[in-house]
User: Fold this.
Amino acid sequence: MIAALVAIASALALALVIVVVAAMRARRSAAERLGRVVHQFVAHDDERPRPAEADIEGYKLDDWLTYLESVATTAAMTANLVERDRARWQLAMDELAIGVVLVDEDGTVCASNALADEMMSARDAMALVGAGVRELLEQAGAGHARFRTVKLTGPPPRVIEIGAHPVASDSHALGAVAVIADRTEGARVDEVRRDFVANLSHELRTPVGAIALLSETLEHEDDPAVRARLVDRISVETERVRLIIDDLLELSRVELEGSMRQEPVAIVPLLGEVAHQYSEHARLHDVELVRPEPSNGSAIKLHADRGQLLRAVGNLVDNAIKYSDPGAEVHLSVLPSSGHDRPPTEVLADADAAVARIGPGDASGSSDSPAPPGGPALFDPEQSDAGEPAWVDIVVADEGIGIPADETERVFERFYRVDKARARATGGTGLGLSIVRHVVANHGGEVMLHTREGVGTTFTLRFPAPDDSVIFDKADT
Amino acid sequence: MTEEVRTEFHQLMDEVRADLVQMGGMVAEGISAVTAALLAGDIGGADQIIAADDELDLLSLEAEEKCVHLLALQQPVAVDLRTILTDLRMISEIERSGDLVTNIAKAVARLHGVELEPRVRGLIDRMRQQAVKLTAMAMDAYAERDAGLASVLNDMDDVLDDLHNEYIVSVFASHELGKMEIQHAVQLAVVGRFYERIGDHAVNVAERVEFLVTGELPEHLGANRARARREQDEM
Assistant:
């Protein structure tokens, strides 16, 4: 019995010894294996001290784990730095005014900036830019630099230039890069400049040439009736030259902001004055001028140059009358508004009317997308709890022929005419809207234009309303 | 299919998708360009637009060949098969819209010298705007596989239909006031019809997109999501 117990006990002890030895061996071999893995994978230029390969057997599991922990920490820090570096580059690229797309040697996009992403994801006519970029990148990937200009009709028209170049290091192809640049503004300015010179010489030469011819004829003419007619024609042409010179001088005066006289100007009486000034003109065209009731918002004032304002609003009213059919109405109104969110138009309620917006410091007259019209047209003091009005809008709305959508930006150019034949017949100089634009820009405001052919045109002159210069008295309404 | 073949397969499918988006862009630009030519009476511009339709035809043939290649050599199933079938249908819809642009361009010469009333001009411009908008939205719904966007297109097309009716009334009112010959009025009415048809083709495209995205058994949805994720990862 005891012998049996002793035998069992010694068997157990033996088993325990075997298990312990095996565990120690397993531990050592695990440590050894880990050591070899470390030597295999951790870069040899790693400067941290680590067990030499020859001594691998002498180290314990813990030694290796400590070493690996420090490697892992460094790797995480490096990855973080790389990620921040990448993010920094991406943010810098997103700030660029050009689109950039980088592809690898398989043609897969590996980097692009925000502008490029926007252009490449377009599904309208701008999709042609995306298609062009893809095609050019393919050719650049094959080692050929390529350029292309994509012209889109619009409106608004766009001119986009795409350039694609191979990216190579020591003649080893790494991929290709495409650069997308919007050249619309440059192309537009070139066109404006070309047209200005051509139009100016045309506008000045035509009457001067006519005067020269008429006076030559006059010299050899004896019939008093014919002579009288020729003299009449000469004075008509002279008047035209005088008008153009007057407008050109006015324009240069307006362009000199320093010559502005700032004074508080009550807007409603000013509109009344304009309406009075043009009442005869309106009667001749059988157009009704509707001005705001003198009692309605009569306290609205602007700090402005009265003469310039008269001229700007007068030019708009003049145009509105000229381009309206008999029986139509032209509305003059003024309304304070609390910001861009309140659209000032009343004639055009549809959200897709042709629009242009000419802002301050933007005398060349580009546009951006304005707030869609459709809100309440007339200022309602009951709803104006949005605080002090930020703007004062002077609105001239007609029910005339309207302006073609692709011309809305160009009408502000000097001497630009939508319909050359009709414009000359109406006797304008082609400078009226240029003057309007400059006057509004001088006052830090912007011109907004909503128009639809055959429905009407609404010009809104939006002036900033400094705290002390505009008083909207609720008691007045 | 092995991984490599699958990648190649999806690359080709992506190419077809890009081709289709490009074709949609060509149609959108064509609508704008032909409207500008029509309103300006620019016969030279109209001729260029007619010539540009060849490009669209070529691209649609190439895209079609790619689809046939995919069908014949890869024998796709489920969503891939449905995508290729949708692509094939879409190619003909877009190609047809391009033909309608060409038809408008051909009318420019026939309408040469006809002075359009501002109201008629305004309505043509609005039809242009709607036709471009519908085409671009249909292409967006397709490229993004956006069934929600696709489903609103039919309602939006009503705007173009209403404009078209208003336009026809204006054109014939213009004729009755003695401002336009009857043959020109008829020609203009036909032009209006072309704009309206472009809108219809955009609606057709949107319907195909809805089928592509939703026309399937519920249990396929999860698999498709996973597949879409995989495709995204590959990109």
User: Anything to note?
Assistant: Chain A has four domains: 27-95, 96-182, 186-252, 260-476. The first helix of chain A runs from residue 2 to 41. The interface with chain B takes residues 108, 122-128, 130-131, 134, 152-155, 350, 352, 354, 400-402, 404-406, 452-455 of chain A (CB under 8 Å).
